Write the structure tokens for this entry.
Amino acid sequence: MGRPGLNRRQLLAGIGGLTVAGSFGFAALGTGADALASGADTRVRYWNLFSGGDGYNMISMLDSFRAANPGIDVKDSTLQWGNPFYTKLAMAAAGNRAPDLGVMHMGRVTGFSPGRLLDAWDVGLLAKYGVREEDYNPALWNRGVIDGKLYALPLDIHVQLCFYRKDVLKKADLLGDDGRMIPVTSTTEWFDVLKKAKKAQKKGLQTIGLWTNDQNFQWWFFVAFYTQLGGTWFDDANTEVTFDTDKATEVLEFLRRHVTDGYVIPGAPTGEQFINGAPFTWEGNWSVPVFSGAELDYGATPLPPVFGEQATHAESHAFVLPHQAGRGGATNEAAHQLAAYIVQHAQQWAAGGHIPAHTPTLSTDAYKKLAPQNEYVSAMDHQATEPKVWFAGSTGVLAQDLGPIVVSSTMGSAKPDAVARRMKSRLTTLLASKNPMDGRTAAQGGAVA
């Protein structure tokens, strides 16, 4: 892409506000040993941010790869989730000490200076190991394409879902003949459903968990419903803010009404309330193992299309190649082989609630039998994502800036119409701001495919 290099000192100065102190600590997981000790011909250093159940599933997949490919040793390390991970990864790439393979949230890729801190994938090598563009949802694949090159290979999408208790909804006559929640296509229908569910639920519980005071969840919900209304953020050139304050106000009023109508107990532990009998909770798909482990009779659908168009918030874990000055040879090929293997063997990854990005997996009998995953797999085709700009993505500047503003409306400390105008003002400021990774504004970041 013709961009100059970026050294560690410049990067530290540019990152500025990110917390660097303490970001260098990480815990090594898995059974990968040094290649010299294991006798393997090639070693792949792999950094990820998966802990808990995701970490367990990833380790199991890596061990399967090791058993199938004894000539490749995988040295996997799990780092702290969030900005500490991205800071360490950026500094390693700038200092030519990057791992051979890494994981990022797809929304952060545009801001990670592709071509300077990330190397492009060799799609020919990926095809050699069985991964092709045609095996992906086009919109998801293209999110990883910058200036015509693939910089992020999607592993999954993780989405916000409407979890529901079948036992409560059955009492409220809100289940269809298929045993699933009845369809909802408008705000009127949705609040009618909540009203009926409230009459059938246990006393002392909220009707729905909405994470009303959590900036991340409130932001994710806003993105979903604003997308349902057809709302946009910026023009194609990323030079003008096209944010629609009327549509934003409509979404903010919708979220606020859950509180004012008494369906939410602000600050209540959403997951615990659901396990104890609350009819609904809106959570990420990563809650599937928790609720299944509690042996609940429940279902999960994408967020209801209350504004007409189906859209639910989605992010994606994706494999990336952190920049290496001498990238190539057997190690680089092994990194491609490892990523391709995990992508194609993501059935176990789906057990954690994530929707595998490799679409052939979704058509297997094994995946179709997974419940409730088989109920919300359609979310792959109606993803509501953040705009493709440097300040977007999981734990990114956009969510940190606008999330608390959305919370102020939902919690009632600010009026929805005033909040919508404030959001547009912040978007205008962010659009003119420079990416600390390379000093470029969104408009200067290059044409995206």
